[in-house]
């Protein structure tokens, strides 16, 4: 017998939150357009965090796999990685860093902003990542 369930959508609170990284997965980019984007945009990274003060709440963030800086702006993957490691990576460390699993279990702060879409629904968007200074990072 097929069963249907109701799953209530929980909107994360706006503001700054201490979070712990639970997982990083490489997934297909559902917005990939081969006519508009290069082959390296076919995949993306899905970062799953949980709120330290509300462990039952999770939020996902998507990025490329690139630990790079372009025109002075860091990629989202680099920003999150440095926040989780609590240090700025040197060029050599960026080149050598490949095992994202070492980030799992680390904590950082992120800032959530609420935005309305064209339908008028409110969505949560993570807009900033910061080092959690009072939290001991896992060794890298």
Tally the helices.
2
Largest beta-sheet details: 5 strands, antiparallel
Q: What sort of overall outline do the alpha carbons produce when their principal axes are compared?
A: globular
- Characterize the quaternary organization of these chains: single chain
Percent in strands: 35-45%
The average pLDDT is 88
Strand order of the largest sheet: 3-2-1-6-7
Please give the number of β-strands.
7
Return the string of H and E elements. Answer: EEEEEHHEE
How far is the first residue's CA from the last residue's CA?
49 Å
Q: Helical amount among residues, as a percent range?
A: 10-25%
Give Rg in angstroms.
17 Å
Structural class: mainly beta
Low-confidence stretches: none
């Amino acid at each position: 017998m097929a069963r249907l369930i109701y799953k209530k959508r929980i909107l994360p609170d706006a503001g700054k939150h201490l979070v712990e990284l639970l997982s990083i997965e490489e997934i297909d980019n559902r917005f990939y357009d081969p006519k508009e984007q290069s082959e390296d945009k076919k995949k993306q990274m899905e970062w799953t965090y949980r709120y330290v003060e509300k462990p039952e709440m999770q939020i996902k963030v998507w990025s490329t796999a690139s630990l790079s800086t372009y025109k002075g702006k860091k990629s989202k993957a680099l920003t999150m990685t440095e926040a989780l490691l609590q240090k700025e990576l040197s060029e050599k460390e960026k080149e050598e860093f490949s095992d994202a699993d070492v980030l799992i279990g680390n904590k950082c702060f992120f800032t959530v902003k609420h935005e309305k879409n064209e339908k008028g629904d409110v969505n949560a968007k993570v807009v900033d990542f910061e080092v959690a200074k009072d939290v001991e990072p896992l060794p890298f």
